[in-house]
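Example complex used in Figure S2.
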Amino acid sequence: MAGKWKEKKIVMDATEINRALRRISHEIVEKNKGTGDLVLVGIRTGGVHLAKRLVNFIKEIEGVELPLGILDITLYRDDLSTKKEQPVLKKTEIPFSISDKKIVLVDDVLYTGRSIRAAMDSLMDFGRPIQIQLAVLIDRGHRELPIRADYAGKNLPTSAQEIVKVLLEEEGEKDRVIIAESI
Amino acid sequence: MPLNKKDLLEIQELSSDDIKLIIDTADSFKEVTGRDIKKVPTLRGKTVVNLFYEPSTRTRTSFELAAKRLSADVINIAVSTSSVVKGETLLDTARNIEAMRSDIIVIRHSAAGAPYILAKGLKSSVINAGDGCHEHPTQALLDMFTIREKKGRIDGLTVAIVGDITHSRVARSNIHGLTKMGAKVRVIGPATLIPLEIERLGVQVYYNLDEGIKDADVIIMLRVQLERQGKTYFPDIREYSMQYCLTRERLKFAKEDAIVMHPGPVNWGVEISPELSEDKATVILEQVTNGVAVRMAVMYLLSGEKS
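Predicted assembly (490 residues):
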């Protein structure tokens, strides 16, 4: 989310974030009856650190380190020709085959669903997974596409004017989820 | 730092940040070109026109592949079979193409400055694919990308450019780009093929190959433009290759891990000895591979909404 913004309210702190991620890890393992054929793919940039944390939690729970991929969805966005400045393109790193795998796609905030649409299109060009599931830390509503999360850390009702930010230690911030307003 | 440009006409006008952005973006596109499905939907619905007034295989194919891998539609116009032979002017040809709703026009022309005429007169993005003896920006960008990939950096490297500096748009674009990126650039060639006062561009001039490539990290060999040799700039090809052909023996003057580049097509035995064609120092084919990624990056970065 570009532009300047001002922090208004903290909706999750570090403990709550990690508690939610730990619960999601348990849910992932439970729903998939273990870790067989499971892989995690984090969406740049917000989903990558969260996916790494999920990998660590699942390792604690099951003793298995799941493969982790990183997906940059820039080239699959539906708003490229209407943006003045082209978004900076980063690398996609999926160093394993996703064919016949169950993918858990990880993002920080689920909003319109357009990023997830782009992510799914991109994944389909890498192979034919048997299933794609979606894990997000925050589901803030306002969907514009028929997409839902299989695992959500927190459902957060918001107005479209508000900005939801997930700030993480890995990016030099104190772990927290905030609601902000643009200034 | 966005590129914020409509056209890519020259390296001279780019900042080191612009060059870095293009190379970084190309690095990400290289991953795309290594996939099983080497295609992304980014430029779906856009039309790219290759307008080539000079013969080219490598550059035209590279632009065409780059556009296709971005899902754009591509038209190739070879001037020898077009209305240009009926006397249509450059701008008229381009305006007619644009009237069919092109988005990007890639032009190669024997006259320096031709892409600027199009850039001024058209709404489409214009990419210079070589204009006379002036510039060939995407070649320099792919050279710099290859250098950074092999050496991890450009800043502080010593790069020797060898051959016909006077007529080489590749040399000119590379001199601008490499000096901006902090490399020390040397040009080497017979005095008849080195422009007077080229030192003003921040390069050192050498007339002797062995001295010029001493301790170099990168050697860029330029093509001897045999088709130009109606005008004599040196006595004959054999004499040239005695003096300036890079051999395995001579390569020892450069740094041990030096790389050898060439924009192609190579006249083996004239610029570079065939014994180096399979040598690990020679990265000519990697330059070609990187060319597609660099051109994808340029088309992507020029394709934001036009104000």
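Chain A has one domain: 20-76+89-161. The domain at 20-76+89-161 of chain A is CATH 3.40.50.2020 (Rossmann fold).
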